[in-house]
Amino acid sequence: MTPTADIPLKEPVISAAAGDAEQLERARIDASTRVPVLMFYASAMVWLLIGTLLAGFVSFKLHSPDWLSDVSFLTWGRLRPVHMNVMIYGWASMAAMGTAIWLMARLCRTTLRHPLLIVAGIWFWNIGVLAGVTGILMGYSTGYDWLEFPPYAAVILFVAYALIISWAVLMFRFRRGDQIYITQWYLLAAFLWFPWLYAAAQAMLFVVPVQGVMQAAVGWWYANNLLFLWLGAIALGTAYYMIPKVIGRPVYSYHLATIGFWTYALFSSWTGMQRLVDGPFPAWMITASIAATILTIIPVATVGLNHHMTMQGYFPVMRYSPTLRFTVFGAMSYTVFSIVGILISLRSTARYLHFTEASTAYTHLGLYAFFTMIMFGSMYYIVPRLVGREWRYATLIKLHFWASAYGIGLMTLMLLVGGFVQGASQNDPSLPFIESAGSVLPYLRGRTLAALLLTASHFIFAFHFGLMLFGLGRTSTVPTFLNPIEAEGSEAHL
Amino acid sequence: MKGLVSLFIGVFGTFAFSWVGLTVIPNLQIGALNPQMDEEGTDIYPAPKSGMADRGRRIYAANGCIYCHSQQIRPDYAAADIDRVRDAGPSPRPKWAERRSAPRDYIFERPVVLGQERMGPDLANVGKAGPTEEEKPAVAPAANAPAGSPANVALPKPASGNAPPAPVQPAAANPSPAASASPNPNGLPPAYSAAWHHRHLYSPRSMSPDNRDSTMPAYKFLYEKQPISGERSADALQLTGPEAPPPGWEVVPTYDAKCLVAYLMSLDQSHPLKEVKTAAGAAPPAASPPAASAASPPAAPPKK
User: Which SS3 state, helix, strand or coil, does residue B252 take?
Assistant: First the structure.
């Protein structure tokens, strides 16, 4: 079970002579991030499980509406925003911050200062999410997508964020070495974008509310940028770190990485209004967003090409490394997500797909297939380095991967096809409207099946993560491979 | 160190570009619209909603109606919204709309509930789909405070005077479902009347045989089952079949349910707007589209 020399699954040795010192330094940095990052991950896992169960409820209730519908806080219209907000602020943001802080410490080659303040921030963040969720369940949802938390929860989240991220930014100030890696760009940018984005949306919706339809524009501008500039940026930064790290090879092209970063920042931030296509808005707003969505093909192509060329010749490593398998799945999903985004935003397809389940498919492609899979990958890499144990069961990792991959694949397929069927009958005025609701029902049942797969996958991962947290991982110097290295050979199918 | 300053400038610059472009500039364009009025200063549209309907919108948002119902009509060149008729109602069925929605329709809405998906039909004009003025049951003054109803606890806030035009009280904001209007042959109240909305919210799949596929959740928690003390409450729901309460009991709407229905009944974008072309062939009542609108293409952004 020792890795062969040509498949460098271990961290690449940066400098052979200084090897030991480097390892020691890394261990010290990892130790400084241990408590906050594990707390981030543990909180994120709890929220992930809650959000997953809620997703199952929401999916099931959509085709069986009479189930548990007589209690106000179990009504579909309250559980759905709770599910979304738990996933975004509970799972996604906390996992992203955990990974980002660890990456920042590693890349700045500096220890994390004041980890206890970050721990306080994590508590505040959890309280904020809990307060917001309670607010929605009690019937105080604001009614703006992804901003349903009552404003008092937003204040708590903001305080928590300041406590957490100021130290991450400070690490950058104390960095050693004058090289700034591409991952640091993405992370630093995300750290700065999120508070601005959140503050701007809160201010324009609740403090000095804008008039009428502008609220919807601000809402979608926020939701889309949250997906791209906060979660998406951290996911891309993570992929830029994990892929070269695991295969032990530098990023293919720094030029491509630069182009990808700036075009990503420029074009993704202008998308969002296509969700309001043909609505009561000046047409130029919608058109600008559709154009920006089409232009996101540039960052997609450059980032995708860069990752692909980095991976060139090393794809078989995905057979062994859990991190690489999840990360590459996520990076490929970024391409799929963006292309689906372009296709459904065009006016000719929006005629059929606007107001249908297809937009739910798009959101889940971004939040799950792209972002969440990369986060899973990073957790498989980072957690062993924090707890000093290796993942116990390769089988569980494989089950986790395949249940997630098939689950999100099935879900996307069901919602895209169902959305098209739904939209086609919606757009035929000779049919009664109820036909369109009825036509999508079989696909919604299929989606519930996908939700079951994802639930299984998350519980498996949570169990495995729990073992690691309680020190029940393997004691070994060799990482857990998905398949025994000896079996390497012709049957490599990835 | 090289490039760090440009990194910061770029990070802020790209984001500021998007913020200004997609929120600040549009806000200058459509963020300060006034209601439209004719030369005499009468016939003002839109007007702020009454206190009950305004509260109803919050209930609409808080209970997630927005995730399945849109309140925006797309133009005829983009989709079939305007050609659509509602699934219920007397023949000819009420249309979804006569014209597309425009920013001015929403200037008093907060939160604005444009919606994003249509698991259920669009509601932009559902208040207009109800029985016309003459058929509407008279507003029963007593119906506002039935004995034992929570309406006594929370009285409607008087409509705040923060907006220029006088608030309009929807004609049937608070009617008694049991009142005069003759029910349909199938025992249902007239489609899209307040009584119909109450029954639909209470039991969406009981409405008519072709509504079995509806995936709308029942909002029974907005209603109360109570023993009949003396007279049957004027606003008790008329339920039949398995939904009917046992003898001696009745189902009455809570104050929240009344507000929600008042809100639904107030949804009406039928008033012509100067900047929007009204559907040809179906002239809106009492007002043909102003000549100015014919000149402007429908795709043109609404002018200030």
Answer: strand
What's the domain range around A428?
Answer: 314-489
What the block records as the tokens of A340 is: 């689906």
Integer Cα distance of A200 and A290 in angstroms: 22
Name the residue among A63, A136, A211 with its Cβ closest to that of B215. Answer: A63
Tell me whether residues B220 and A69 touch, CB distance under 8 A: yes
**Cβ pair A282:B64 closer than 8 A:** no
Over residues A209-230, mean pLDDT: 95
pLDDT in tens, B207-241: 776 677 788 999 999 999 999 988 888 889 988 77
At B72, phi and psi to the nearest 5? Answer: -155, 135
The answer to whether residue B34 neighbours chain A at the CB level (below 8 Å) is no
Q: Which of B4, B21, B61 sits opposite A270 (nearest CB)?
A: B21
* Structure confidence by residue, pLDDT tens digits, B183-199: 455 678 888 999 999 99
Answer yes or no: is A328 within a domain: yes
The answer to whether A361 and A412 are in contact (CB under 8 A) is yes
Question: What residue ranges define each of the domains in chain B, with the CATH number in brackets?
Answer: 48-152+168-279 (1.10.760.10)
Residue A287 lies in a domain: no
Q: What is the DSSP letter of A474?
A: B
Q: Which ipTM value was assigned to this complex?
A: 0.89
Q: Which of A127, A160, A179 is the last residue of a domain?
A: A179
A295 within domain boundaries: no
Indicate which CATH number applies to the domain containing A476: 1.20.210.10
The β-bridge partners of B168 are: B49
Q: Is A255 an 8 Å CB contact of chain B?
A: no
List B residues 180-209 in contact with A (Cβ-Cβ < 8 A). Answer: 204-205
Do the domain assignments include residue A130?
A: yes
Chain B CB contacts of A75 under 8 Å are 63-64, 217, 219, 221
